[in-house]
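Lecture 7, part B: from sequences to assemblies.

Below are the input chains for today's worked example.
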Amino acid sequence: MSEQKKFMTLNMGPQHPATHGVLKIILELDGEVVHRAIPVIGHLHRGVEKLGEARTYIQNIVYTDRLDYTSAMINNLAYCLAVEKLMGIEVPERAKVIRVIMSELSRIAAHLIWLATHALDIGAMTLYFYCFREREKILDMWEMVSGQRLTPSYIRIGGVLSDLPNGFMDRLKSFVDTFDAYVDEYDKLLTKNPIWIARTKGVGVISKEDAINWGLTGPALRGSGVKFDYRKAQPYSGYEEYEFDIPVGSAGDNYDRYLVRLEEMRQSNRILKQAIKKLPEGPIKAHVPEIVFPEKEKVLTNIEALIHQFKIGCGNFSMPKGEVYASVENAKGELGFYIVSDGSSKPYRFRIKSSCFINLSALPEMVKGSMIADVVAVIGSIDIVLGEIDR
Amino acid sequence: MKEIISSFAGVEVYDGIDCITVKVEKDKLYDFLKFLKTNESLDFNMIVDITAVDYPEEDPRFEMVYHVYSIKNNVRIRVKSRVKEGDSVDSATSLWKGAEWLEREVYDMFGIRFNNHPDLRRILMTDDFKYHPLRKDFPLQGIEES
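Predicted structure of the full complex, as structure tokens:
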């Protein structure tokens, strides 16, 4: 007669610092070994997809900021690309380059917050302060262009909100020139650190085949050795004109995902350097009076422009009917927007495809048979943001 | 690509604004998805998204929308299928593991059930929630006693 094994059930979260937000995981434990992990999500559910159906296409931009709030600008871009695809808008060259600059700054900012908190979870506290030192500089730049640090809504349908302010390029240049040395500093602190290696190597392994089958995207997929990045595979916003490499791992463990992200920061910096050289003069918004606001100066001096702004602001515009899906490679993976338009100024369906949602769904498989302490490391390593998962 | 997809009997293939779109009957949906995944030249090995759209005035009421991606061909396609209220759809979890949570979300938000799903529970709303919030007849401000 076989003896029925009894497992202990432990609730990890939702109020737990290592779950990066309000994530709850029900752990069934055999001693300290995880027999089964069941993530429970939805604590941060705001119903963004429902809200999106009740707001106009322009108003919806601010909801996108609040998805992955560590890299808000890329989310703006993904949404705007979807609407632009639907309307067939071609964005001016200068706006495209500004969008790339903002995307790569977002990627660096998101990876910094990941590295800071992931290292803190595992016990390397010094890095936390280093990473936030650099992230602060990026947030300052966002404040310069939009007045906001966390939720800029700077990228708009048809271009960007306004031109880069005086002094922005100087700040960007000084950031870009110094950043590589900072990444080397993180590298020195962690890559050969025996404690770091013990906590990350061989932990949270997911094979190449499994990673694809689960539909993982971003560093979680590349860490398993799949050379796949939407910036290369289906370039948007002029990414085909930049030179950069896609770092890949091989083992699919925490350590490889760490190496991939570290290298991605260097590659993002490389793209930024090219973008600074490339940045052309010219308009920053497409000329599409149906949906793009007139220039502020004109609004304040010209009654027709004022009426025009008022009309669009009140949602008095129409859209082509149809459906469209557009996606970008954000810091966590593929962020996609599927929009169904019935011709009115509000989307009929406003669907957000979140990479974190899918990456997290593979967590039970990644932690099965590992220790409780490793669960913390794996959550940090797949890099989730609950704002995007719960929507 | 279009020719190979059209070789599957009974599907309607056309170019959408952004990608090839396929309309398929609900009864053939699973077989068609399996064809996309297993056909060697198509090789749609990655699930991108599964969702639904509610058209309360139309019959069948719901439309399932799948986005699948082939890394080998670097192509994304959209598969759509109409589903009646109360009908259930064959789950795609046996093809792509990533479909598990996506289908749970469709069940949670629209009330469409899936056959052969390993763990069909609500995912974003609480277990005792009675409604399906992304249906068009669910009010934006919510329902008081829920």
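Note for the exam: Chain B has three helices and seven strands. Keep this in mind when comparing with the next example.
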